[in-house]
């Protein structure tokens, strides 16, 4: 988010220090991908769409987040097949966050 101009608006929605945001994302992804349920162990239960509905997340912000995730995935030593699978899977919560935000903010 710090490097992509298209993500500047999205970046402003986060705290200056991204340490906790990164940890929460890593913990969420661990459980979401079938690993240990680190997020609930550390932070409690969460509904990703409901939690994010407090902010006006539209398609542009969702696309910016997915673009950031795509760049982060590309930096990992993942196989092409897994990288594509992961990005495809991340589109699901990204879309649900937009729907939840739209329902709350109109």
Automatic annotation (TrEMBL):
Gene3D superfamilies: Globins. Heme binds at residue 95. InterPro entries: Globin-like_sf (IPR009050), Globin/Proto (IPR012292), Hemoglobin_trunc (IPR001486). Coiled coil: none annotated. This is Hemoglobin. It comes from Pseudomonas panipatensis. Keywords: Heme, Iron, Metal-binding, Transport. One of its GO terms (molecular function) is oxygen binding.
